[in-house]
Design brief:
Length: 445
Amino acid sequence: GETAWAVMYSKNGVDQFEKINYPVEPFVYIELADLLHQIREYDEAIEYAKKGLAAFKILNYEEEYEDPYKDKISAFNTIGSSFYNKNEYDSAIFYWQHALQFAKENEDNVLEAKVLGNVGKIIYAQNNYDSARILFKTDFEYSLYDSAYNEAANASQWMAQANLARGNKVGALAEAKEAIHLLGLWPNARYLRDTYFTLSQIYRAMGDFDSAFYFSDRFISLNDSLEKEIATSSLDISAARLKSEESRYRIEKINKEKQKQLFIRNSLIATIIALSLIVFLVINRRRLKTKIALEKAESEKMLMEQEIMSAKERIKSFTSNIIEKTSLIEKLEEQLNGNIQSSEQQQLISELSQQTILTEDDWLKFKSLFDKIYPNFFQNLKKGAAGITLAEQRMAALTRMELSSKQMAAMLGISVDSVHKTRQRLRQRLQIGSDSNLDEYIADI
């Protein structure tokens, strides 16, 4: 993406200046460090941010810059964030404290609040949720004051995480929704992804599994897109693009020199060059076609792998959703056990129980995801067992998922004993002897 090109040209320019000992201005180093941080090149982000801080001491940049403390805070913040993402919290706190010092000395409450919000992440990781939420709220309020709605949204979703950890699910939901609203004013894909994840956790904690699955699905989709963008923007790819750009420039230069020579060479040499050029173009065209075919095949392979991974996550969430509902019903029945149940309570348990059964629509959704993970499973199953029933097919699929008998019973809405009987019929249908393992046989289909 654009970040990859920015890193490529910025880093190449800085490296070339350093080779000839030409002074590089601090903000150039600091902006490059921020770009490197965005594509997760944390070690190099730290290196160039430190170079930016050191550059202030060269050629009186300290006096020439307007509000140089802001660039210094940016550099210290980038270094601290890089160490935070490397899980080196002590180093992160050390550099964030330097950033806080500059902000306080210059009475910049907005930047101070931003750094405090970052410090809150470490305090949150240490399970000190009350203190962390106070810092996130400070960041939120000053970001709103500065009209930085994207940063305010990020602070709000962190407040939601802290509230959820404190057990305040209602407050957490309100703060997460506020983050969604603010991101509508100032979109940010990374913050939106994090907010989707937070919402899925909140709804799961509230027992609203449909909403939890919805936001979990949106999180997975957006996260896959962002991860692909980061991979494309990696430093290795940027370096490869730069190398390709340099090669193209050299080829153009050689071609211009050849064109100049054509004017002074006789017709025989011109003919030879023309023939050579034709051969070169033919070979190059074939190589290009081969390269495009290989890249297309690799792209299709990656897409297929991503679809399979997404299907695995969704089928796992789908299965867990039904199992969690079953667990909830069992707990309700235990609480009511021994008590005289009213007709309304009996009807409630009956309606909840029906939600745990794998309905026809649920089965079609489950089968669609299952086919992506295990292609041709049902075709091979039917070939090896003519006349196999739908119930036996479902039992085979759940067996392939390595679910327990209790979990199968929950999903199918039958007793554990019925599960054993269906598995026995499936064993007979597949003509598997008692000395053979049914699970291993199905795993090999």
